[in-house]
Amino acid sequence: MNNQSFVIERVYNAPVHKVWKAITSKDEMKQWYFDLSDFKAEKGFEFSFNGEGRKGEKYVHRCKVTEVIMGEKLSYTWSYEGHPGISEVTFELFPEGEKTRLRLTHAGLETFSQSNSDFGRESFAEGWTYILGTALKDFLEKDEAKTEHSNSHPK
What we know:
155 residues; 34% strand
């Protein structure tokens, strides 16, 4: 079967250090990603979290950090307890002035059972589009939006 990697890029109105902290701090990740009991951006660190499928089915995600380049790149495996298949998620950060371009690649989607729609490419596309395009964007830009809003109205 063809490699079904999913790639998405978003530009955030936030500097790289702020985006890096958002994708590597368990306290910040809880606010926009998943509720992780622990996370360390260290190669070999294993973590898990609970998620829910389209029809409410519960999944335990099992992950292991595979690569860390501080402030630039974070990769980890992504699999589901009790289900075959293993994939890899990679976050890459690129500074663009005061903004940051994030490229997420989720490779190995074809290793998951295609008979379960929760593991289909479309499901991952829908999930990552929301997570990066709405949840992370809102988290990163909430302070900037308040600052811009207050600066646009004369006192």
